Amino acid sequence: MAKILISMPDKFLESIDKIATDEQRTRSELIREALRSYLRTAQTINSKRALKNAEILDGLLD
After folding, report:
1. Of 7, 9, 44, 58, whose Cβ has the fewest other Cβ atoms within 10 Å?
2. What is the chain's mean pLDDT, rounded?
């Protein structure tokens, strides 16, 4: 598994650590899950946007 280095404000990291502790997870597990959720959301939004653009193009070509 690859490792990365990121920077974030101390308060933000404190919030992440509190949630991780409350959920009995590691910081890494929590951040991975948050990024998975973000990627799913981004893919859904991009798919909807692509569909809408295709509908607009289809309407222009009719």
Report:
1. 7
2. 91
